[in-house]
């Protein structure tokens, strides 16, 4: 596991351990890996950052080889390139956790895995690329080194325990405070997401089956709705909060940013179609199963409470959530 201590990487590591698999975690040492893993320390952004991995994986009888590598990297594609090349002769398969952001924008509703991709991505690119180009560059790096032994898991919106982006934790904390809560748009708006644990289980199952190529990895459109998500937050927190559904036009006119100020939510339009209306038939045919939204929300709340209500946050991602003053003005309006 390249990473393995936070959010997606941690979920994959925990799922593998639960299956009785032997797991080696290669990471920078900023967070403790799950108990039961073997640990290798290295910084992929440093010149000699893969040294510990190179020694451990040396095919000379003194190191290890692996059945599967899972890589969640979202920075410079060159880091994926270097790791994949190093491991190509030492690992049977390589799964790269990519993103549906690799599709050329706007992606129409119902877009499948063979849709047009962003142009200009390179596996040799360094820092400074957009998220979409970085993820596509990572895909190209994995394919270059592993070919048909590479699996590209193009995840959509990811929620669940260990989230360090702040989307579901913000909604849970806001609703836990109670009172009137600004609820965006209409409650019947379909949303697509995937519980991080369902992602992890599918990735491991797919590796066992030898799947390769690209898969859109997210729930079906309509797996739940914005209302279903927020109602589940009310039930999980037990706050008795009152959801006040507010037209999208009113919210946008106030300068509120969808997705960031009001996480998960998007008004109708190109971005909504891109992120909440993708085709996932291939992944479902390959065994994807998505748990009910109530389970995702309740388990995330339990995890969050165990941390005292403050979720970890990735320093490379912007803060999310609507400021109380803006919410109060909209509720009063």
Q: Taking Cα atoms only, what radius of gyration do you get, to the nearest Å?
A: 20 Å
Count of helical stretches:
12
Fraction of residues in β-strands: 15-25%
Oligomeric state: single chain
Order of helices and strands: HEEHEHEHEEHEEEHEEHEHEEHHHH
Count of β-strands = 14
Shape: globular
Let me know the average pLDDT: 95
CA-CA gap between termini: 50 Å
Overview of this protein structure:
By secondary structure, this protein is of the alpha/beta class. 37% of the residues lie in helices and 17% in strands. The chain contains twelve helices and 14 strands. The protein has helices at residues 7-18, 51-56, 77-87, 131-146, 167-176, 196-209, 226-237, 248-253, 270-276, 281-285, 293-306, 324-332; strands at residues 24-27, 38-41, 66-71, 91-99, 150-155, 158-159, 180-184, 190-191, 194-195, 213-217, 224-225, 242-246, 258-259, 262-263. It has a four-stranded parallel β-sheet with strand order 3-4-5-10, with helices on both faces. The chain has a two-stranded parallel ribbon with strand order 1-2. A two-stranded parallel ribbon has the order 6-9. Helix 4 (131-146) links the parallel strand 4 and strand 5 (150-155). The longest helix is centred in the middle third of the chain and has 16 residues, at 131-146. The protein is globular. The relative contact order is 0.14. The mean pLDDT is 95.
